[in-house]
Amino acid sequence: MVSNKMVEQKGNILMKRYEIGKLLGQGSFAKVYHGRNVKNSQSVAIKVIDKEKILKSELMDQIRREISVMNLVRHPCIVQLYEVMATKSKIYFVLEYVKGGELFNKIRRGRLKEEVARKYFQQLISAIDFCHSRGVYHRDLKPENLLLDENRNLKISDFGLSAFAECKRQDGLLHTTCGTPAYVAPEVINRKGYDGAKADVWACGVILYVLLAGYLPFQDKNVMNMYKKICRAELKWPSWFPSDVRKLLRRILDPNPTTRISVSEIMENPWFRVGLDSDLLNKTIPTEDVIPVHMDSTSDHFTKNTNEEKQAAENLTSLNAFDIISLSSGFDLSGMFEDDNSKEEPKFTSTNTVVTITKKLEDVAKSLQLKFLKKSGGLLKMEGSKPGRKGVMSINAEIFQITPNFHLVEFTKTNGDTLEYQKVKQEMRPALKDIVWAWQGELPQPLNEQL
Ligand code: ADE
């Protein structure tokens, strides 16, 4: 169990692991600081979220989504999430530190040369293609969310507003209005429901225009007039825009999402392909290259993995997009299934290690007179002692790793009476409170109770 002392932020050292440095950026709920790993001096960015503010504003689901999304999208052009920590009042995201600052700062100094703008656009499209292939849409693409590393390569940050199918209705379209007006697609403005992929394509078009022109394509002091210009896709071309760029941008900034060019079509475009790094389109970061750096290079017991824990972690099943969609109550897919009983299946997240979670489940199972069995692949089984009307009640508990110290535990009834299962579920909830960060659909309980 992690002691209170481990998670306190002493001076400017966070959990004895990261020295917090200067402020890099600030939003309404979060501040981003430079951080340094005290063990190996590696620079990180630490995004600090004030829990009180988000608990009040129902943003908790968004935070959960951010954790899940960032873990799904490992790509050299996407800022990587290393780990998540929490104290009583704050959530800390430890992120890859991107040294070169915002791409936006470059444009402030003027427009970019065609080759430079194309390189960033190629990296942007490659990362977007990678996200879309995993069912993830950014939905808030703008130059402020595009950072540059020390080699002037682009990194997309801030998946805070990205979503899977959370707002998808029967028509399969998204229904929340997100994003900054200047980069928002006409169908998002019109609140007709939109395809997240096509809305991202639109934003990429606005970004390409800004990189090449040095100013926005649709601008007006009056927001309503700006919306009108966006919806009509009223474009004016600077004299220096080459004709092949104009042709491509016309296809991207098509107000009709159904005829708008797709990401794969952009990748076939002749202007896009000039000087394209062929590696770029197949680049992903192998998981084994990422995780050990942050597990092996640390020695305190908050993240240090014992052999037992390493073995347990290896046994874990990794989450697929579908599991992650169902992690958050915001991702309610029940309408998509006629015979849905997924609401019956409880899930919780935990900031404890696999070993601690397993031990607790074992203790609780025993206290409820259930047999406890460890199966392969990280699967745990709990079984009743006597057969009921429908045989012996059997529950599977599966632990999924989201980050090295953030796990999802999911229960499923595999046999037996529903009534008996309901009773066990009711008794299990309070018994597990020491290791639960949040039950699905509920706000996290105060962390001081668990740490
Ligand atoms: N500002 C916001 N996120 C950042 C990051 N990951 N690295 C550097 N600066 C940032």
Automatic annotation (TrEMBL):
Residues 18-272 form the Protein kinase domain. Its cofactor is Mn(2+). It catalyses: L-threonyl-[protein] + ATP = O-phospho-L-threonyl-[protein] + ADP + H(+); L-seryl-[protein] + ATP = O-phospho-L-seryl-[protein] + ADP + H(+). Residues 314-338 form the NAF domain. The chain crosses the membrane at residues 199-218. ATP binds at K47. GO terms for biological process: signal transduction. Belongs to the protein kinase superfamily. CAMK Ser/Thr protein kinase family. SNF1 subfamily. This is non-specific serine/threonine protein kinase. It comes from Oryza brachyantha (malo sina). The gene is LOC102703945.
